[in-house]
Design brief:
Blueprint: H1 2-15, E1 19-22, E2 29-35, H2 38-60, E3 63-67, H3 82-86, E4 93-97, E5 99-101, H4 111-118, H5 139-155, E6 160-161, E7 168-169, E8 172-176, E9 200-203, E10 213-216, H6 218-222, E11 226-231, H7 237-245, E12 264-270
Parallel strand pairs: 2-12, 3-4, 3-8, 8-11, 11-12
Antiparallel strand pairs: 1-2, 5-10, 6-7, 9-10
The structure holds 6-phosphogluconic acid.
Length: 301
């Protein structure tokens, strides 16, 4: 009888993708979506992005979308396919990067090149609305130049800001999860995690190659309207368990420091990535009907 009940509870957790997850050591909350495999995650992520994009375009005629590097860029492929592709007003999109490596934009290590090959070359976003981080072979100059560019786009009202805080408010930031808990190019136990004023920082000694990088700062990420983490595959299982279920020492897990100030933090993960989570302890998770995945995306006017 007891076993049957447990099986039933498990089933409820496994098959419902919507849970309101509360971080272990504070009031900050995130919505957690769990799916069977990468295909399902990619399709749900595409629908989520469509919904956020259409809403932003309806409200202010633009959508500001911030990309990461890493394996998750491939998960954007459903945006460039079928009815989803046709439901997006691509000419209203502005694309940014949360981090970049100091290599030429056509180099194999470039996050811009990865995004171009996997996604941007398949969708009609006007070239001048793709705001790559130009690197000049010097991470300090590049970080400074990108922050100036973002500030100029705030003045031109392409990017909004929060009135009380002086940080850009991007509509959507997409983040990958590093095996050591890093996010963007913000690595564990580094002074860059404590930055409070700057929007973009140079990184000179990244433990993940290449060592020279440029990254948005935590307050810049946390000021966004929607931040989505994507964790795929069993290689992310242990770090996902640490980030979601174990309070960490300050600075030791940058991903745990992503706490969206006044917006939505959402996790998308597959079975492999969630295999070390103790979902049976998530019984307090409430159903959170943030949006209905089954609704067809509407074309915005
Ligand atoms: O430029 C980068 O290196 C990234 O922006 C970085 O933060 C990445 O998203 C994670 O390291 C996850 O990468 P994988 O998904 O490839 O493990």
């Amino acid at each position: 009888m007891q076993k049957k009940k447990e099986e039933k509870d498990d089933e409820k957790i496994d098959h419902s993708p919507r849970h309101l997850f509360q971080y272990p050591d504070g009031p900050s909350q995130a919505t957690f979506f769990r799916f069977d495999d990468v295909e399902e995650v990619s399709s749900a992520l595409a629908e989520y992005i469509v919904q956020v994009s259409n809403e932003a375009i309806k409200q202010r005629g633009k959508f500001t979308f911030v990309l990461s590097g890493g394996s998750i860029v491939k998960a954007l492929r459903f945006l460039a396919e079928g009815p989803v592709f046709h439901s997006i007003a691509w000419d209203k999109w502005h694309v940014f990067w949360v981090d970049e490596r100091v290599v030429p934009l056509n180099h194999e290590d470039s996050n811009y090149k990865l995004a171009k090959d996997e996604f941007l070359s398949k969708v009609p976003i006007p070239h001048e609305q793709i705001h790559a981080i130009q690197n000049f072979h010097d991470e300090k100059a590049a970080a400074h130049a990108y922050e100036s560019k973002l500030r100029e786009l705030v003045r031109k009202k392409v990017i909004t800001t929060k009135t009380a805080k002086k940080f850009p408010r991007f509509d959507f930031v997409l983040l990958g999860l590093g095996p050591d808990g890093h996010v963007a190019s913000l690595f564990p136990n580094r002074p860059s995690l404590a930055e409070e004023k700057l929007w973009v920082l140079p990184i000179s000694n990244s433990p993940k190659p290449p060592s020279k990088r440029i990254t948005m700062t935590l307050p810049c990420i946390n000021a966004a309207e929607h931040v989505a983490f994507v964790a795929l595959g069993s290689g992310k299982a242990h770090v996902l368990h640490r980030v979601l279920e174990r309070p960490a020492l300050p600075g030791s897990l940058p991903a745990q420091m992503v706490r969206v100030d006044d917006g939505n933090l959402v996790w998308f993960a597959d079975q492999g990535a969630t295999s070390e989570l103790h979902l049976e302890n998530w019984n307090n998770a409430k159903q959170f009907p943030f949006f209905d995945f089954k609704q067809p995306a509407s074309v915005s006017s």
